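Q: How would the structure tokens look for this protein?
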Amino acid sequence: MKNLAYRFRNGTWLLGKYGLSSLTATGFDFLAFHLALSWLALSAVEATVAGRTVGAAVAFFLQRQWVFQRARATRSWVLVVKYASGVLLGMGLNVGGVWLLHNLAGWQPWPARIASALTGWFLIFLFNRYLVFMPSETQRPFNYRT
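A: Here is the predicted structure in token form.
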């Protein structure tokens, strides 16, 4: 029971930190989306790509340094490749969602963008947690399960 309580508390804390990093990155994402949409007169899909790119860079920095604390990863190029795969997956979810909701369903750009971002958020958390920032076998504690 004690181990379960620890895992729940640790997982909740990690999800909260991930949420804060995501919120910060999303702020940068949406700012870039707004600037690309209004100042550069890009389409909603193009502005989504610009926003996701900026947001992904901010998210990687925060998640590597603070959330998953993998700044000293021994094979950091592998970390970058895995993270870039998640960015492409997330961008595909966001762009595809905006395209479906805006172009096919007739939603306005902002509601389509927000709905797409929320839909992909938890899936990308799982991807980052278990595929990108998971400690290597040699760095895990004996009973690592969180």
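DSSP finds four helices and no strands in the chain.

The two ends are 15 Å apart (CA to CA).

Upvote if useful.
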